[in-house]
Amino acid sequence: MSQPSVLFVCLGNICRSPLAEAALRAEAVAAGLAVTIDSAGTGGWHAGDPPDRRAIAEAARHGIDISGYRARQVRREDFRRFGHIYALDQQNLRDLKRIEPKGFMGRPLAGPNARLSLLMDLVPGREGTAVIDPYGGSEEDFAVTWADVTAAAQAIVSRLR
Ligand code: 4NP
Q1: How far lies 26's CA from each of 7, 31, 49, 64, 93, in Å?
Q2: CA 12 from chain center: how many Å?
Q3: How many domains does the chain have?
Q4: Domain housing 112
Q5: DSSP string covering 42-67, please?
Q6: Is 22 within a domain?
Q7: Strand 115-118 and strand 84-87: pairing?
Q8: CA dihedral in degrees (102, 106, 112, 113; nearest 10)?
């Protein structure tokens, strides 16, 4: 069986989803788990850009270098390539549902789609809540983002184990 694969999706792919990607990479390494991990944005305005400098700084505070990450826009093929797609907030989830491949005129899909869900649904007590967008906020908001995505990454690792 192929290894588990996880895609995190936010709006710009420069703040929240790169931090989620970094947090899960760190938790998976610590747990000795092999997982394919990537992140993307529902929007394409930042495609090719590195993460926001405040996201790079927050990851660096936790010993992780994300300066080499580059943003990309989510694609329909991602629903084929990944086993799980996690939306960082409800708007991201709605946008993903809109592009999710569906059967045509009653015909089933050629293969299974990724399982699509809201990221914080994985964290007990935080179901239905968003990872708040820190883009217009302060450095402290990025620390909150880190705490949220780390709690979710730990939940993913315990599910995969
Ligand atoms: P992200 O944050 O979705 O967590 O990457 C944002 C980044 C950029 C923009 C909005 C949110 N923007 O409007 O450019």
Answers
A1: 15, 9, 22, 8, 25
A2: 11
A3: 1
A4: 5-156
A5: SS-TTTTPPPPHHHHHHHHHTT---T
A6: yes
A7: parallel
A8: 10
Phi, psi of 112 (to 5 degrees): -70, 145
The 3-class SS string of 114-141 reads CEEEEHHHHCCCCCCCCCCCCCCCCHHH
User: How do residues 28-67 score in pLDDT, each as one tens digit?
Assistant: 999 999 999 999 999 999 999 999 999 999 999 999 999 9
CA-proximal residue: ligand 1, atom 6 (nearest): 12
161 in a structural domain: no
Q: Is 16 in the pocket of ligand 1 (CB under 6 A)?
A: yes
Answer whether residue 99 shows pLDDT above 90: yes
The answer to whether residue 10 is catalytic is: yes
